[in-house]
Amino acid sequence: MIGIIFGSFIPLLVLGVPIALCLVLMTIFVYVDIGDPRLFLQIPQRMFSSTENLLLLAIPFFIMAGEIMNRARITDRLMDLSGALVGWIRGGLAHTNIVASMFFAGITGSAVSDTVAVGGIMIPAMKEKGYEEDYSAAVTAASSVVGPIIPPSIPMLLYASVMNVSIAGLFLAGILPGILVAIFLMGTAYIVAVRRGFGERAPFVGIVNLLAAVVRSIPALLLPAIIMGGILGGFFSPTQASAVAVMYGLAIGFLFYRTLSWRDIAPILKHTVQATAMIMFLLACAKSFSWLVSYYNLVESATLAFVALTENKYVFLLLINILFLILGMVLDMGFAIIVLGPLIAPIAYTYGVDPIHFGLITCVNLTIGLVTPPFGLVLFAACGVSRVKLMPLSKAIMPFVAAEMVVLLLITYVPFFTMYLPRLFGYA
What span, in angstroms and rounded, lies between the C-alpha atoms of 343 and 246? Predict the structure, then answer.
């Protein structure tokens, strides 16, 4: 069976067949090898049943909320606030870029969306102020990692639906690690700015201007507060919170900022449908493969293999980090979560790792993979926004990737950073 899986999946992937179709075709090949025609009836059944989870409705709503905020040019207000907060530090525009990504993370939950939205504004601004183009693109790409870590997060929604883990607990677990990533990236940006002479230190804008920037940004900043406050306060479920986010985004876009028009609705819906269809089709196709995991006892076999390698929990976590970082570079994040989550998470539980903690480790690992050269998806998005070639960008981003890996080790081996808030609110 293993020979059929690798002998069919890898060639199909190399030929450019979409990952979702690779999964279905590979499953069909294994069913043919088993020789039971009744199994083929399971494929459409499992594909449809995988999309019946109510939690999955949150995915299109959060995607739509992020697109609404982007179309409403909320990024401009967040940029102003970020500049007022940290623009006075040496290398100020790089810090502004990072903090803006942190604010924007509470709206979109997507690394690629953050790269395009923030990069479209910040990369030209940094170039104008004398920052090298590859460095500007590297800061933008690296800081976009915060997007899927700070809630709301599309990868966390996927993980929660697949692994039956509390989405509120996962959202809470991502807050402190997301802030840690931003702090470490700012520290790296400061060191690079001093060494390479980027961005002379600017004067502080003053309390009055800072307060004015805060006031202008309050409607945008309230969105993540409404989402998390509503979920934790029991006012609505995560799915209902996503719908509230859409309504709130439309309200401030049309009524408060008045930057949305009716002509924006069609592009917003088109982007939402495209992104949602891609995620849901991948989830449906992966579900047909999940039967093979249980039929061939792959979880038990993988558990025995890991235990044979080591019985030490910390060595196991190191091996998992290495594995996920490598896979995150070459595999779609959704695919990795949907297929590998059910296979590896039960092994982690046998080592005594908390389900929420392991879910956060998984999401952060795969997110860092998005910006790790040479195949990270966000790198290509940054290249498209900045028109920088991949090799210079890969070289410029490595100090930031190293900083993110330090944070990954911290959240892996110091559970306090991930588990403090979930335990405080009773989710762990």
Answer: 34
